[in-house]
Amino acid sequence: LVFCCLFLEMEKLVACPYERPNALCRLICFPWAGGGTSQLAQWGKLFSSSTEVSSVRLPGRESRLKEPFPKDMTAIVNEITNALLKELQEKPFAFFGHSFGSYISFAVALHLKEKYGLEPIHLFVSGAHAPNSEEFLHIKSIPLNDIKDEDLLTYIQFLGGTPPELMQYEDIKKHLIHTFKEDIRVLQTFSFETAERKSPFSCDITCFNGSEDDPRDSEAWHDLTSGDISFYKLPGGHFYLLEPSNEIFLTKHITKCIENAGL
Q1: Identified catalytic residue from 98, 122, 129, 238
Q2: Cα separation of 231 and 218, whole Å?
Q3: Model's pTM, two decimal places?
Q4: CA–CA distance, 127 with 98 (Å, rounded to integer)
Q5: DSSP state of 153
Q6: Distance (Å, rounded) from C-alpha 118 to C-alpha 111?
Q7: Hey, what's the torsion of the CAs at 67, 123, 42, 234, to 10 degrees?
Q8: First to last CA, the chain
Q9: Which of 54, 55, 99, 105 is catalytic?
Q10: Side by side, which strands form the sheet with 93-98?
Q11: pLDDT, tens only, 217-243
Q12: Any idea where the Thioesterase domain is (predicted)?
């Protein structure tokens, strides 16, 4: 019964259209604010048989549309950990997160390390400040209640990543704004201090960014691991990763890093 419940929890939480039970490593992807699993789960077809790719699906979207949004980062971290722990104990895993997803992947990795002594073999972060940086504190101080919906919609459209044809539908627009706000609200409940503590991780970290995106404070990632840190700028804005040529670069580079981890 316990196994059955865990399986159902995982089915609800994770999209894995290209299952590879014999893969050497699992790559768990964490989508951006307001995002679902559709793009990153499809990465599975771009990887070799040695890597199984899945994407996390949070409450309030896709097949979980009717579920209430998470109230804070702890709720998200606990749900993901409870559903995936058995899988993550079975074989090596790596995390990829974009923007909001980078912070979730970091928070989950931190919890796994502190509570279970588990660590990803590699952390891939994209379009995100380091969570111990000054810039991250600015995100936490955004007065969400004061922002008009139309201003938020303009900002979402400016960032890109949402098909323009979807913006013709009023209910989709409304839901997108609501989801985006709820995701930022969750982000504002996450705090991480590095003072008085050694680097939380020993795995390598790779930071990807779009060349035309706002500059990200990436350097502070150096304080978060005793492993190697590398930085890559790819052509494009905040959603550079949706460009097919960048997607090919990302998946090839991630494959190389995973293979070099000596599984």
Answers
A1: 238
A2: 8
A3: 0.91
A4: 6
A5: H
A6: 9
A7: 120
A8: 33
A9: 99
A10: 14-15, 51-56, 25-30, 93-98, 122-126, 204-210, 229-234
A11: 777 888 899 999 999 999 999 999 999
A12: 26-247
Structure tokens at 55: 């994407």
| Cβ neighbours of residue 249 closer than 8 Å, sequence gap 6 or more | 234
pLDDT, one tens digit per residue, over 9-28 is 667 889 999 999 999 999 99
Domain boundaries, the chain: 1-261
State how far the Cα of 165 lies from the Cα of 91, in Å rounded to an integer. 41
The answer for residues whose C-beta is within 8 angstroms of residue 202's C-beta and 6 or more apart is 119, 225, 226, 227
133 is catalytic: no
Phi, psi of 83 (to 5 degrees): -75, -35
Please answer whether residues 51 and 23 qualify as being in contact, where contact means their C-beta atoms are separated by less than 8 angstroms: yes
**Alpha-carbon 48 to chain mean position:** 21
166 φ/ψ angles, rounded to the nearest 5 degrees: -70, -25
The identity of residue 240, as a single letter, is Y
Q: Catalytic: 178?
A: no
Distance CA 129, CA 221 (A): 8
DSSP 241: G
Per-residue tokens: 145: 């209640």
204-210 and 93-98 beta bridge pairing: unpaired
Residue with token string 């040529």: 245
Q: Are 32 and 103 within 8 A, CB to CB?
A: no
CATH code of the domain made up of 1-261: 3.40.50.1820
Considering all CA atoms of the chain, what is the largest pairwise distance in Å, rounded to the nearest integer?
A: 51
- Confidence at 90, pLDDT banded by 50, 70, 90: very high
